[in-house]
Write a structure and sequence with these properties.
By secondary structure, this protein is an alpha/beta fold. It is 48% helix and 12% strand. It is globular, with a radius of gyration of 17 Å.
């Protein structure tokens, strides 16, 4: 079945067979969902993703060998303009590796004890192209982890490829505002905000809004607690 199908194709990746089987069974029983494959580690996930082209990947964060972060980065890079949405699975919501997963292009994260109905709703959410969490939740997470993240001098995309308006939209995305709030701040249409953000992400090679938030921090456009940083509600 092609990616244009109305059903959501999901790849389940976890090194624990019982967890993987349970997730797959849950998805197979849900209307509008189909399991296109399973993988026990990151290397297998890369191969299966290339063969099945899933819409969404449930990706275990910590696995022996190739882990979830490296697999996410490789899968998204190989997918070109049509990457799958990756939801990373973790045991603890304070896991520092969640930051690296967002940087790699993941669209959100789930705790492994998430109730079934919320997990299914999360898969449907990211399949539509949305983040699992609101921009404000992203910025809280990134702010809490950014201080401990190692800087990456020379590894960031150059922001001088952006127009002034695109830089401003990226900065506001980094402060946790959603598109409607940015539109109000800049007195432009919400559709225009989306256009600027899409162009920004294309120019910078970003695969998700969460990745844009991370870059806004790492590039210095947004500084935790600094001027221009909006207070979360």
């Amino acid at each position: 079945m092609s990616r244009s199908s109305r059903s959501v194709g999901v790849l389940v990746v976890d090194d624990q067979v019982l967890i993987r089987a349970g997730l797959a069974a849950l998805l197979r029983a849900a209307p509008g969902m189909r399991v296109v494959g399973e993988a026990a580690d990151g290397a297998e996930a890369v191969a299966v993703a290339a063969a099945t082209r899933p819409h969404v990947i449930l990706m275990d964060l910590r696995m022996p060998g190739v882990g979830g972060i490296a697999a996410t980065r490789e899968i998204i890079a190989a997918a070109g303009d049509d990457p799958p949405r990756v939801l990373v699975l973790t045991t603890f919501d304070t896991d520092d590796h969640v930051y690296d997963a967002l940087r790699a292009g993941a669209s959100g994260f789930l705790l492994k004890d998430t109730p079934p109905e919320r997990l299914l709703a999360a898969v449907a959410t990211v399949a539509r192209g949305d983040m699992l969490f609101t921009p404000r939740v992203v910025h809280r997470l990134v702010e809490s982890l950014a201080a401990s993240a190692a800087p990456r001098p020379g590894a960031l995309p150059a922001l001088d490829v952006l127009t002034g308006r695109e830089r401003e939209v990226l900065r506001l995305v980094g402060t946790g505002l959603d598109n409607s709030e940015i539109a109000g701040r800049l007195v432009i249409a919400e559709a225009t905000v989306k256009t600027h953000l899409n162009r920004t992400m294309a120019k910078l090679g970003l695969a998700s809004r969460a990745q844009a938030v991370v870059l806004a921090y790492e590039s210095g456009l947004v500084r935790p607690g600094g001027r221009g940083f909006s207070n979360p509600q």
